[in-house]
Design a protein that fits this description.
two-stranded antiparallel sheet, TIM Barrel, alpha/beta, Type Iii Antifreeze Protein Isoform Hplc 12, 348 residues, elongated, 16% strand, eight-stranded parallel sheet
Length: 348
């Protein structure tokens, strides 16, 4: 699978997405500066969200549309929240251009058919389906039919929801699917992350996997990398002082830079399955144990535990030969501190 100029999955480096979300606070200049800053952090991609309040919901203030769920946004209606958070469509072309200038991959989450059509005009390299849209099967089918890689968050999904979403992509011939483990809580407590689900998602659905993170800090996505996550998505903000709906659980420039470093260092640590040792380590084997003569001996003396020991460094015979050579005779005079060699021993 390939998104833009990046290969996804397998032995390739983790694909790190900086999520712009609402962190522009309605200011195009802030959005542009945020994209440029994302490049400096080492992120691979910047992701937008393509909706308007009217494509997501209706302007209604009854109990069904008012947020009262113990979130950061309690007291608002859905329409009010989305009106505050959305990225104006007339910005998109400019934001895509800025991302291209910076060498960042830019794509978006569509929330209805019109958003897909709009993003197709911008030639997006992939589509991201947000957690709360995983049950919108017509939207998933329509986006998947465009033949672009599909990144799908599973935050509110039960197993059957995930299976239906995956089957929907495959039904239209799209097998380039990434499932993101996600906890749809803002911010998400660590105890609800359940990151061990990541390798299980890969096994159960035979897709690439990743992690969309809403916890504080960078610990969770770093750990996710050790569990096989090949895509990491995290909300990114230029400066938390500007505030906004998502500022609380977003990472600023220094924090996101640290996140990227942690992930890249983790990838180095994980490496590959190997029982070989590097040339540098091979050189250090001289500090391992070996058999040494620890008392002055003459030809004909018997090798005993008193005059031969397994000690550091590693210039003598391998310690595995100790029991085999005990009781044999020295073939020559040897001074204390000399590494034991086969020619010092009578084997007949």
């Amino acid at each position: 699978m390939r998104i833009g100029n990046k290969n996804i999955g397998g032995k390739n480096p983790c694909f790190i997405i900086a999520e712009l979300s609402a962190n522009h606070n309605g200011n195009l200049a802030v959005a542009i500066d945020t994209i440029r800053a994302a490049k400096k952090t080492g992120a691979d991609a910047i992701k937008l969200q393509t909706y308007t309040p009217d494509t997501l919901t209706i302007d209604c203030d009854n109990k069904y549309f008012r947020i009262e769920e113990g979130t950061l946004w309690d007291g608002k209606t859905l329409y009010e929240l989305y009106g505050e958070a959305y990225t104006p469509w007339e910005w998109h072309k400019k934001l895509f251009e800025v991302a291209s200038e910076e060498g960042l991959i830019c794509f978006s989450s569509p929330f209805d058919f019109s958003a897909v059509d709009f993003l197709e005009e911008l030639n997006v390299p992939a589509y991201k389906i947000a957690s709360f849209e995983i049950q919108d099967i017509p939207l998933i089918e329509y986006a998947a039919s465009k033949g672009k890689p599909m990144i799908i968050s599973t935050g509110i999904a039960e197993k059957n929801d995930i299976q239906l979403a995956v089957d929907t992509c495959r039904k239209v011939g799209n097998n380039d699917i990434v499932l993101l483990k996600c906890t749809s809580s803002y911010p998400a407590p660590l105890e609800l992350a359940n990151l061990n689900t990541i390798p299980d998602l890969k096994k159960e659905f035979e897709v690439e996997v990743g992690f969309s993170d809403h916890t504080y800090g960078s610990l969770a996505p770093t750990v996710a990398t050790t569990l096989g996550a090949k895509v990491i998505e995290k909300h990114f903000i230029l400066d938390k002082k500007i505030g906004g709906p998502d500022a609380d659980f977003s990472l600023d420039v220094d924090e996101f830079t640290a996140l990227v470093r942690h992930i890249r260092d983790t990838e180095k640590l994980l490496g590959k399955v190997s029982y070989e040792i590097s040339d540098k380590v091979k050189k250090n084997r001289k500090f391992a144990r070996s058999l040494f003569v620890v008392k002055d001996v003459k030809a004909g003396d018997i090798l005993t535990k008193e005059n031969v020991r397994s000690i550091r460094p590693g210039y003598g015979l391998h310690p595995k030969f100790l029991n085999e050579i005990l009781g044999k005779q020295f073939s020559k005079e040897v001074k204390r501190g000399e590494p034991l060699e086969k020619e010092m021993i009578e084997f007949n």
